[in-house]
Write a structure and sequence with these properties.
By secondary structure, this protein is an alpha/beta fold. The chain has a domain of 202 residues: 3-Layer(aba) Sandwich (Isopropylmalate Dehydrogenase), CATH 3.40.718.10. The chain contains twelve helices and 14 strands. The chain binds nicotinamide-adenine-dinucleotide. Homodimer.
Length: 359
Amino acid sequence: MPKKIAVLAGDGIGPEIVAEAIKVLSFLNTDMNLGLVFENALIGGAAYDAFGTPLPQTTLNLCKNADAVLLGAVGGPKWEPLAHAVRPERGLLGIRSELNLFSNLRPAILYPQLVEASTLKPEVVSGLDLMIVRELTGGIYFGQPRGVHVAENGEKVGINTKIYSESEIRRIAHSAFKIAQKRHKKLCSVDKANVLEVTELWRSVMTEVGKDYPDVQLSHMYVDNAAMQLVRAPKQFDVIVTSNMFGDILSDIAAMLTGSIGMLPSASLDANAKGMYEPIHGSAPDIAGQGIANPLATILSVAMMLRYTFNQPDAAERIERAVNSALDSKVRTADIYSEGMTKVSTSGMGDAVLNALKG
Ligand code: NAD
């Protein structure tokens, strides 16, 4: 049975970077006989222009029937005046919830060739390779009751609710333990169990699920300490698992350790490891159409797809090694350029990765 990938290029630099990722993936597909087939569909502003909605039913159906989704990016100034309900970003949120993509994986890897791009000292960050697993469809961003109301004394009161059921914690726990098994088998669960009862439950369910994974070393850390440790000594971490809001904040800290938004991939997975894969950056309208965007985050997102959805670690490693070789050969897109390097276009970088794969 061929394995289907829904390809949603989206807006801005989306089509430019996705084209390079597909170039790399198509080569491996033939070279390693992976049995992948690709089908394109519109999302975001491009879909709004064509169909009056950022997430047409045909696109949603394609994603539901596919084994994985590759997304470029959505949005741009052209669509900013639109009502919130039809804004490009709504297309993205729609897919995440329709496909129940509750497990958000954000690796932060610092390539040795780019160590100077980090704001931290080289000795603190060189060799950094950590993964944050963030719960994506629950917690305080979705909990009820929520809102702002006027209390009996006439004062306004704002409320949000951090709520997790055992089953929600259990499924993100399994997801994180399985990822740790594929890495260095160390999992740190981040909570605030000294203050929040909901995270007391989080901690106890994590501990209970951990019994199913005796090969993974589980530890617990309070979120305030985790924020500090990420900046103080980030290399102590292998995999971090945490709730929606804590993960939102910690993953941005971790991303900044690597210093370069054009390099970072992400995955959002469901319970069966079906996933949507995308760079963490947006549609970069300021550089769209110029052929200068960095395609490496999207190419590395494809490597994640091969590892997590298609269980093809060898193919994933080939891409990651090829990205390393391309950087070794000193080619750089504008965002990661420094003196002494060779500046290349979006397709020039894609070609450098392809050549490294072929070599
Ligand atoms: P952005 O990530 O698009 O851009 C921020 C800066 O980083 C810009 O200067 C841009 O040129 C640069 N940049 C981003 N990706 C790059 C790449 N691959 N290579 C080189 N430089 C790159 O964030 P923004 O400007 O805040 O948002 C622009 C649009 O993207 C908005 O409409 C926003 O809503 C949307 N957005 C979409 C997603 C998504 O689709 N997942 C995520 C974030 C923002």
